[in-house]
Q: What sequence folds into this?
């Protein structure tokens, strides 16, 4: 059965802890699936390579705690993930038939863009999990083309997940902001981006710096790019699963395609 594609805002590492708006949202996501995926392919803001790279063909997947200055409890997190070696040949074949050429780096550990939300969705991950890198030098058009090709994998039973945030300016994080509050510049950017998402405007989606406040919302674009393959993997309307803000400027909107 065809699987969806999700864009998940992964937020700050501590959002994976305890009971909060985002952990409850993640925990409820399996209810949206009509059948278990054959595999999961995740694209995270936190892994970039010089060419499109696949990870996950290993008996013992590892996670990395790729952040600094957070509470010790976060560095103690471990996550049980099933090895992807049995499903990897099938996934390689599906990627090739979709016209997607990858190199492999199977020892690469899953970063917190992957495990922070997914460990709350699947505390014991028994579905084969793979990660696809961002590519240094790619532009928005490249990620839209990738998404169009990934549509075929959805037909084959692969759940596509993009993990990032649709505003990401760490210099403007406000730890004193009330949950749900958004700075004016951030809200203005998201209003414009939501319009582009609703109309599926490829030029605007591929060039978020052209939107009001775009460079403020994304001084760098790695947290934005995972949205584009999700949108482009399906011609149907994109639907918001969650609309929420945290820390004053961090957009936690999440979408399904």
A:
């Amino acid at each position: 059965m065809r699987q969806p594609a999700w864009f998940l805002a992964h937020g700050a590492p501590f959002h994976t802890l305890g009971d909060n708006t985002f952990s409850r949202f993640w925990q409820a996501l399996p209810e949206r699936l009509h059948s278990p995926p054959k595999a999961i392919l995740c694209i995270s803001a936190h892994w970039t390579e010089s060419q499109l790279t696949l990870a996950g063909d290993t008996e013992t997947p590892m996670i990395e705690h790729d952040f600094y200055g957070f509470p010790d409890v976060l560095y103690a997190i471990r996550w049980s993930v099933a090895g992807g070696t049995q499903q990897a040949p099938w996934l390689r074949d599906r990627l090739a038939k979709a016209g997607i050429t990858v190199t492999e780096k199977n020892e690469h550990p899953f970063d917190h863009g992957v495990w922070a939300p997914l460990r709350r969705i699947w505390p014991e991950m028994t579905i084969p999990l793979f990660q696809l890198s961002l590519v240094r030098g790619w532009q928005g058009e490249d990620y839209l083309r990738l998404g169009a090709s990934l549509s075929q994998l959805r037909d084959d039973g692969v759940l596509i997940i993009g993990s990032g945030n649709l505003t990401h300016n760490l210099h403007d994080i406000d730890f004193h902001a009330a949950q749900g509050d958004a700075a004016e510049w951030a809200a203005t950017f998201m209003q414009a981006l939501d319009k582009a998402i609703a109309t599926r405007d490829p030029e605007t989606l591929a060039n978020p710096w052209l939107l009001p406040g775009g460079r403020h919302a994304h001084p760098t674009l790695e947290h934005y790019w995972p949205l584009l393959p999700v949108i482009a993997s399906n011609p149907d309307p994109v639907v918001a699963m969650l609309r929420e803000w945290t820390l004053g400027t961090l957009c936690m909107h999440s979408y399904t395609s």
Q: What stands out?
A: The chain has one domain: 5-256. The radius of gyration is 17 Å. The CA atoms of residues 155 and 221 lie 29 Å apart. The mean pLDDT is 97.
